[in-house]
Amino acid sequence: MSASHAPAELSSTTPDRNGNASALDGLGSIAGPVRVLRPRRAAPADAVRPTRAEVNLANLRHNLRVLERAMSGASKPQIWGVLKADAYGHGAPAVARTLERTGIPGLCVALLEEAVELRDAGIRVPILVMGGYYGPRREGFEEILARDLVPVVYDAGQIERLANLLRLEQRGRVGVHLKVDTGMGRLGAAPSELDAVLATLAKHPEVRLDGLMTHLACADADDLGVTLDQMRRFEEIEQRARRFGLTPRLRHASNSAAMLRLPAARLDVVRPGVALFGISPCPGLAPDLKPVIRVRSEVVALRTVEKGERIGYGHTWEAARQSVVATVPMGYADGLSRQLSNRGAALMRGQRAPIAGTVSMDLTMLDVTDIPGARVGDEVVFLGTQDGPLGRATISAEEIAGLTGTIPWEVLTSISRRVPRFYREP
Ligand SMILES: Cc1ncc(COP(=O)(O)O)c(C=O)c1O
């Protein structure tokens, strides 16, 4: 097994005298520098079990083209792809590399750690760190400067700390994006704090306001009233910034839903996430999008179960007839929701087979009585399309979300780290 099953590796901004980083130093609060954890995921080389996620990079490029075409008009905004949470479960380095090669002008992540992972993977385009958390001391901003990342700021303290660091390190100007809260109520300068934040930026021209951003709470709702209201507030905030002598070059607000539905919200940059991965943020929007990830495994055991016999944890499934049950090495620890127990399905030989009994941590059973010719080694698809001798069938993230009471975003980001990602370039 390769080292990728080891605990997350630690990266150090300031190694010790021997140039080594000790694991204890990663705790930061004990002593020494704060270190940035790099996310780690099972690598294809670790794949002994046949459970894997296949990522189709051609479909990713196709989706980017679909989004570009959807915005053909007089003023074309830049697309900065949102690759937070390991590119919505698809593997951020490979996704970023593919988008960078298409010439994408920028990328967005939530965490500093995620941005560091992309820089370590050799990604050179601007990366916006949207979460705005750089730790209580200055090491987070040191990492931002060292890696040439674009920080999002939203309070005066962050701006002061960055300005202090620039002075200490005798660095030139650094560009930031200011996040403002126009109605999401989550992150961003609140209306009551805005003038103080703008005044702090005006006082420290070395912290250059390159971008002004907000996030929309209801861009996928039937009624766009809330979104229009947020956009009006955003425009007022931009005017306020101008009164402080601040003229952000890149204004942005749109997620996938807003960029597809509301041309007025596109501004200078749009930030699509889920649409890049082939999921329409609202039913019927951009029907040409293609799913990018497919999760598959194989049957490892088959058994005949007599009528009246029960199987699995809690014996929640009872054979209504003599049945054939297939066992597949994919469970809730891989991201297959336990709520799919006795409700969901998987694909075998190009046809649906219902999940039989409780999804367990590592294994799931399927009732394959109606799949003629089922055998050990048959491919089983939990997410995506399968062509087989019995036909062609698809299980979408939307379908799973509907069955489990969640949204496709959560279905994608739940595919766990122990499922290795394999990349296809058809
Ligand atoms: C600040 C911000 N911008 C853009 C996005 C992308 O959203 P979506 O995946 O709906 O396109 C997200 C994701 O939630 C976000 O948090």
General description of the model:
The protein is of the alpha/beta class and 426 residues long. The chain has two domains: 221 residues, Alanine racemase (TIM Barrel); 132 residues, Lyase, Ornithine Decarboxylase, Chain A, domain 1 (Beta Barrel), CATH 2.40.37.10. The chain has eleven helices and 22 strands. The strands form five sheets. The protein has an eight-stranded parallel beta barrel, surrounded by five helices. Strands 3, 12, 17, 18, 20, 21 and 22 form a seven-stranded mixed beta sheet that branches. The chain has a three-stranded antiparallel beta sheet with strand order 13-16-19, with no helix packed on it. Helix 1 crosses helix 3. The radius of gyration is 24 Å and the shape is elongated. The relative contact order is 0.13. The chain binds pyridoxal-5'-phosphate (PLP). Pyridoxal-5'-phosphate binds next to loops. The site of pyridoxal-5'-phosphate (PLP) has 11 residues, from loops.
Layout of SSEs?
Elements: E1 10-11, E2 36-37, E3 52-56, H1 57-70, E4 78-82, H2 84-88, H3 92-101, E5 106-109, H4 112-120, E6 127-129, H5 139-146, E7 150-153, H6 156-168, E8 174-179, H7 194-203, E9 207-213, H8 225-243, E10 250-254, H9 256-261, E11 269-270, E12 293-298, E13 301-305, E14 310-311, E15 317-318, E16 323-328, E17 345-348, E18 351-354, E19 364-367, E20 379-388, E21 391-395, H10 397-404, H11 408-413, E22 421-424
Parallel strand pairs: 3-22, 4-5, 4-11, 5-6, 6-7, 7-8, 8-9, 9-10, 10-11
Antiparallel strand pairs: 1-2, 3-12, 12-20, 13-16, 14-15, 16-19, 17-18, 17-20, 20-21
Helix pairs in contact: 1-3
The protein binds pyridoxal-5'-phosphate.
